Amino acid sequence: MDLIETITSTFSFLATILGSLLLIALLLSIVIIVIVLILLAYSFKTGNFLFPNVMIISLVFFEGPIRAVLRLLRIDDSRMDRISIYLRNKAMCPTFRKIPYTERAIFIPQCVRSINCPARLSPEGIKCKDCGQCRVSEARKFAEGLGYKFFIVPGSSFIIRMIKQYQPKAIIGVGCLCEVKEGLDLMHKYKIPSIGVMLDHSGCVATTLNWDKLFDVMKVSENKVGIMSSIGSNMPMEDSICNTCGEGCRKIP
Ligand code: SF4
């Protein structure tokens, strides 16, 4: 009888401890979610970001409940996605800039081409013919001049194939909000530091892109002297780096 009582009281004690721990975890989660929502509200209002590293981790762990609350408040999912991309870019930038240009690759979507593009599909993506009808040609020459591998992406599986073939150490990915977010998630799995650049206007054809921002991202490097001479620019490099992580996301639409 004593043994049964001892076992029962032990289970009861353990259940109480477990229940208390779960309650503490739940309360802690609610507190973190509330803090993140306050930080997000601040970001929405001002375009500035407080405690970015805390926000990145919190958004990863509590994405579901945070989205649910934002939906209840009738806040578009895309605003959170933009913040998430911005924060990841910001977090990745210090690692990304250490990788030499020659070990980086850039992937841009085929929809940024002119609708009259004469380029043809090849095993290495769509090959620009430098016809000058869009700025892809200029971007390709600039990127390859620095040392990048430059790809115009015909389809999503293409990126994985090129990564396996060329094994770049860092990546710039251009795309719509959804593509960039998924792409950054994918590169996170491959452990490749990546910067996402979002299209200004998405769609299937003739989409638009802030090309100057893309050029700024391409230039990012620790070797400022090398960059200045290679791009022949008078623009202070610090400005360029700031634009890389901040421009476009500084004002959250
Ligand atoms: S510049 Fe290149 S990508 Fe643009 S339309 Fe001409 S061939 Fe196509």
TrEMBL record:
Superkingdom, natural source: Archaea
Coiled-coil ranges from the UniProt annotation: none
Keyword Transmembrane helix: yes
This protein's UniProt keywords: Membrane, Transmembrane, Transmembrane helix
InterPro entries listed in its UniProt record: DUF116 (IPR002829)
Transmembrane segments: 12-44, 50-70
Pfam families recorded: DUF116
Protein name stated in the entry: DUF116 domain-containing protein
Annotated organism of origin: Methanooceanicella nereidis
Organism placement in taxonomy: Archaea, Methanobacteriati, Methanobacteriota, Stenosarchaea group, Methanomicrobia
